[in-house]
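To close the section, here is one more complete example, presented without commentary so you can practise reading it yourself. The ligand is flavin mononucleotide.
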Amino acid sequence: MTSDQIDDLPSALRCIVYSSTQPHGLSQAALVALAAAAAAYNAAHGITGQLLHMPPYCLHVLEGPAEPVENLFAAIQADPRHHGLRLER
Ligand SMILES: Cc1cc2nc3c(=O)[nH]c(=O)nc-3n(C[C@H](O)[C@H](O)[C@H](O)COP(=O)(O)O)c2cc1C
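Output:
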């Protein structure tokens, strides 16, 4: 999606892009559990997006209805697995 297309999203939709690091890494088992829980939560709340995970960095795009996306981002900000979390957009 281009930045112009993002700007045209209806105001009820929210797109958040953040970056962070996981300096201690995430084990394969932790990643599998995280992906399953995140997929279920995101689908139940109409949230889509893309997680680019290049240890120790990650770049995550989240989009969907504003309130669920903001609630999820608050949970992500409180998750101690994220270090140096930066809101990119
Ligand atoms: C790299 C990374 C990406 C994450 N992405 C999501 C996600 O897309 N959806 C989700 O529900 N949780 C995701 N989580 C997990 C959340 O940070 C958090 O643990 C989860 O929402 C549960 O929060 P709670 O314990 O406050 O309920 C992610 C965690 C990490 C480390």
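Once you have examined the tokens, check your reading against these statements. Residues 3-87 form a domain with the Alpha-Beta Plaits fold (CATH 3.30.70.100). The chain has a mean pLDDT of 92.
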